[in-house]
Write a structure and sequence with these properties.
Shape: extended
Strand order of the largest sheet: 7-6-9-5-8
Largest sheet: 5 strands, mixed
Mean pLDDT: 77
Structural class: alpha+beta
Number of strands: 9
Length: 350
């Protein structure tokens, strides 16, 4: 367990954060780094430590410098900070307790069930079987479960098969517990699911995306202005997480919100598609004009053999150009969830 990448990253990062805390003389987690930032930093370091282990020390130093700069800025404006709990070694570990193992678990289990493998829960562990391979008993995904069951197989991004799946891992994994937030700026009667989606059009040499906020009220209405208002509030402040929806409710919530995202994201995708088609139309027009001009010039050549040779070359070049345009006209849409959260208004109704 102590030789895993996860343990090493935790050990190095905790030591460096302790130096920062001592340097600035603070004893509160939020005085420098909130839990969401810590989790994101850990996730990034963890993945990079697996893909490029020789770069871990340098990346940690980069993170230390980033946190140090934040600490200096926070100290300069400490009077505006709210109260947070004191930091002790146990809480430091909780701050670094990130959702990545849960994502890996959901990703792996979903892949196996969808591609002819097997995945069955056996108490706190899993019994899994990769398609066409031997069965693995007592598989766990988190460091905590691995410490509780030393004989279990700890499956992480260090496994090449899981690392391959992770290349397609979205920011929010379906089935991941949906956090619950309370926003004082929202009236108490406003309750629903806020989400952020990335809508992408993939094409050869032309990839464009837009980000769409979405708010689905608990009565089923999709409220555009509320979605943008919540986004602005989350960018301006980081509200505390008051709880999480359970696994079943989180799954049902994701499916419901994804359906709304597909419906309301369609006009955005259509706009991306129109922009792509317009760009191709301009290229076709310019190309057709250029080839016609070259054809007229070649047809003025007096020597028949030279003229026919140049025309045949032009025909081949034009055919190649048209084939390339046809290939570039093939597009693939993608809708990726970035964030999902249950938001409850905490302000007054008036």
């Amino acid at each position: 367990i102590h030789d895993t990448v996860e343990h090493r990253v935790r050990e190095v990062l905790e030591a460096k954060l302790a130096v920062i805390l001592e340097e600035f003389g603070v004893d509160k987690t939020g005085d420098i780094l909130d839990s969401a930032q810590a989790g994101q930093l850990f996730d990034e370091l963890y993945v990079e430590a697996i893909l490029q282990p020789e770069e871990l020390e340098r990346r940690v130093e980069d993170v230390v410098e980033q946190v140090r700069e934040q600490g200096q800025a926070v100290r300069d404006s400490a009077s505006i900070l709210g109260s947070v709990e004191d930091l002790d070694p146990g809480e430091a570990r909780e701050v670094l307790n990130h959702p990545l193992p849960h994502w890996v678990e959901q990703m792996t289990v979903s892949y196996l069930r969808a591609h002819g493998g097997e995945a069955e829960r056996d108490g706190a562990a899993w019994r899994i079987c990769w398609p066409g391979e031997e069965e693995w008993n007592r598989v766990v995904f988190s460091l905590r479960d691995a410490e509780r069951a030393p004989s279990a197989r700890h499956l992480t991004l260090e496994d090449p098969r899981v690392r391959g799946l992770a290349s397609r891992l979205p920011r929010f994994a379906p089935g991941q517990p949906v956090p619950q937030l309370e926003l004082a700026a929202l009236p108490a009667g406003v309750q629903g699911i806020w989400s952020l989606w990335k809508i992408t059009l993939h094409a050869r040499d032309w990839n464009r995306h837009r980000v769409m906020p979405l708010f689905v009220h608990e009565d089923g209405r999709v409220l555009g202005p509320t979605a943008r208002f919540v986004w602005d509030e989350l960018l301006a402040d980081c509200p505390g997480v008051t709880g999480h929806l359970d696994a079943e409710e989180s799954t049902n919530t994701f499916e419901r919100v994804e359906a709304a995202a597909r419906e309301h994201g369609r006009p955005i995708y259509d706009a991306l598609l129109q922009a792509h088609q317009s760009a191709l139309a301009r290229e076709r027009e310019k190309g057709a004009y250029a080839f016609a001009a070259r054809r007229r010039a070649i047809e003025r050549i007096g020597l028949p053999a030279v003229r026919e040779h140049r025309l045949s070359e032009l025909v081949a070049q034009e055919a190649e150009w048209r084939a390339e345009l046809e290939e570039r006209s093939q597009v693939m849409p993608e809708l990726v969830p970035i964030v999902l959260a249950r938001v409850d208004g905490g302000g007054s109704d008036g």
